[in-house]
Amino acid sequence: AKYVYDFTEGNRNLKDLLGGKGANLAEMTNLGLPVPPGFTITTEACRHYLAEGAVHDGLDREVAEHLEALEGRMGRKLGQADDPLLVSVRSGAKFSMPGMMETVLNIGLNDESVHGLAKQAGGNERFAWDSYRRLIQMFGKTVLGIDGDLFEDALDAVKGRRQDTDLDAGELQRLVETYKGIVREQTGKDFPSDPREQMRLAINAVFDSWNAPRAILYRRQERIPADLGTAVNVMAMVFGNYGDDSGTGVAFTRDPGTGRQGIYGDYLQNAQGEDVVAGIRNTIPLEELERLDKTSYDELVRIMEVLETHYRDLCDIEFTIERGKLWMLQTRVGKRTAAAAFCIATQLVDQGLITLDEAVTRVTGDQLAKLMFPRFDHGAEKKRIAKGMNASPGAAVGKAVFSSERAVELAGQGEDVILVRRETNPDDLAGMIAARGILTSRGGKTSHAAVVARGMGKTCVCGAEELEVSTSERRFTAPGGVVVAEGEVISIDGTTGEVFLGEVPVVASAVVEYFEGAEPADELVRAVDRIMRHADAGRRLGVRANADTPEDAARARRFGAQGIGLCRTEHMFLGERRQLVEDLVLASTDERRQAALDALEPLQKSDFVGIFQAMEGAPVTIRLIDPPLHEFLPDLTDLSVRIATSETPSDKDRALLAAVKRLHEQNPMLGLRGVRLGLVIPGLFAMQVRAIAHAAKEVPGARPEIMIPLVATVQELESVREEAVRILAEVGVEALVGTMIETPRAALTAGQIAEAAEFFSFGTNDLTQMTWGFSRDDVEAEFFSRYLELGIFGVSPFETLDREGVGRLIEIAVQEGRATRPGLHLGICGEHGGDPDSVHFCHEVGLDYVSCSPFRIPVARLEAGRAAL
Ligand code: ADP
Ligand code: MG
Ligand code: MG
Question: Which UniProt keywords apply (predicted)?
Answer without folding.
Answer: ATP-binding, Kinase, Magnesium, Metal-binding, Nucleotide-binding, Pyruvate, Transferase
